Amino acid sequence: MSQRTLVIIKPDGVRRGLVGEILGRIERKAGWRISALEMRELDRSLLEQHYGEHVGKPFYEPLVEFMSSGPVVVLVVEGERVIEGLRTLAGPTDPIAAGPGSIRGDFGTIVRENLIHASDSEESAERELKLFFPTVG
Questions:
Q1: What is the pLDDT of residues 16-62, one digit of tens each?
Q2: Distance between CA 115 and CA 27 in Å, rounded?
Q3: Which domains are delineated in the chain?
Q4: What is the CB neighbour count within 10 angstroms for residue 61?
Q5: For the chain, which terminal residue's Cβ has fewer other Cβ atoms within 10 angstroms, N or C?
Q6: Cα(82)–Cα(14) distance, integer angstroms
Q7: DSSP 93-137
Q8: Exactly one of 95, 117, 125, 128 is catalytic; which is it?
């Protein structure tokens, strides 16, 4: 089943020079393709919409501050079971729990700054794609 999903290479991934490594891992996955890509800075308004379900949680404000702390790379990835596959490629949020071969397992250092966001469901992907790429059909 072909799908589309949103991926964000977070400010720590950009700062640490891991954009090429992360994009390469995505591009090397057979059957996946990057159909849109932009480097940008995220403003508070967009982040509040994106992380709206976390308002009031103790990590919300530090998360919004972190995500607005520098440029990110946002992309649309398409392919067979790409939502599930990208979540596996990213690995669990905690880099200690993330296995070798996953992005967070290989490069992650702390839970809060975890290199990459990948939509967690078709519903989330649809909502997030509209926020970040409203003109991508």
A1: 999 999 999 999 998 999 999 999 999 999 999 999 889 999 999 99
A2: 17
A3: 2-42+71-132 (3.30.70.141)
A4: 12
A5: C
A6: 22
A7: SSTTTSPTTSHHHHH---SSS-SEEE-SSHHHHHHHHHHH-TT--
A8: 117
